[in-house]
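User: Design a sequence. Structure:
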């Protein structure tokens, strides 16, 4: 085939290819001239770091020290968890021998209402009707257990409030941890909130809060002062109707420490 014919038939294609090759060569020369030193430095640094990876970065002593530190941290975590976790009294622990969980819950609520009503009557104090509690209507054992523990904490705090001279409890609210019903699941620390709104003298409010934070060694209050009761928030202000009284809203916490499974390093989500 005649080269002139090839040129005439493929002139546009050959011209385009030649122009593209020329642009590529010019670009390569520009990049080489501007960045060759940087590229070389990066290659040298990369080679140096690769050579370091061939040597062990940690010695056997380092691993032993890390293992000892990990054991100390685990012991500390266990100690703190045990101290923070709420310890329910036997009456508020679900047990198959006691019958259906719902019946255990209803019985506990009625007993608490009766005991607190009697105590308030003797102390000439006022409590909200039914303690402002909405009866939990569910067969979910986990939900029943958490509400049962909240009732336990509620009785402890109200007994201490009445014994400290608090004259009126205006409202009570129990709220489970929002994560309990979340699809993401519970974290390591779960907090059920028990909020109490009370009116009293400043001295009575101070005695009440102090009592909730001071475990008893024995005596009549030992059953309700088994451990300090964590407080998440507290708000105290002068009662609007009487200047010598304060209105105190306190949110106590039923702390639950959950076991959280660590992700599998070999899994796709890790």
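Assistant: Done.
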């Amino acid at each position: 085939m005649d080269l002139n014919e090839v040129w005439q038939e493929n002139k546009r294609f050959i011209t385009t290819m030649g122009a593209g090759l020329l642009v590529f060569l010019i670009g390569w020369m520009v990049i080489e001239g501007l960045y060759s030193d940087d590229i070389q430095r990066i290659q040298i640094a990369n080679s140096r770091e690769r050579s370091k990876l061939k040597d062990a970065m940690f010695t056997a002593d380092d691993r032993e020290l890390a293992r000892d530190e990990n054991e100390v941290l685990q012991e500390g975590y266990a100690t703190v968890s045990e101290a923070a976790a709420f310890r329910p009294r036997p009456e508020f622990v679900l047990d198959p021998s006691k019958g259906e969980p719902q019946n255990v819950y209803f019985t506990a609520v009625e007993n608490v209402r009766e005991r607190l009503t009697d105590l308030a009557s003797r102390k000439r104090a006022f409590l909200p009707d039914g303690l402002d509690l909405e009866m939990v209507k569910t067969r979910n054992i986990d939900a029943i257990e958490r509400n049962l523990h909240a009732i336990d904490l509620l009785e402890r705090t109200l007994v201490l409030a009445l014994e400290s001279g608090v004259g009126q409890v205006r409202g009570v609210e129990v709220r489970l941890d929002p994560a309990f019903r979340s699809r993401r699941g519970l974290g390591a620390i779960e907090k059920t909130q028990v909020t109490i709104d009370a009116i009293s003298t400043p001295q009575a409010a101070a005695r009440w809060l102090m009592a909730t934070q001071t475990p008893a060694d024995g005596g009549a209050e030992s059953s309700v002062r088994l451990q300090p009761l964590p407080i998440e928030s507290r708000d105290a202000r002068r009662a609007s109707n009487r200047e010598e009284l304060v209105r105190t809203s306190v949110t106590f916490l039923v702390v639950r420490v959950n076991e959280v499974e660590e992700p599998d390093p070999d899994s796709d989500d890790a």
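The radius of gyration is 35 Å. DSSP finds five helices and four strands in the chain.
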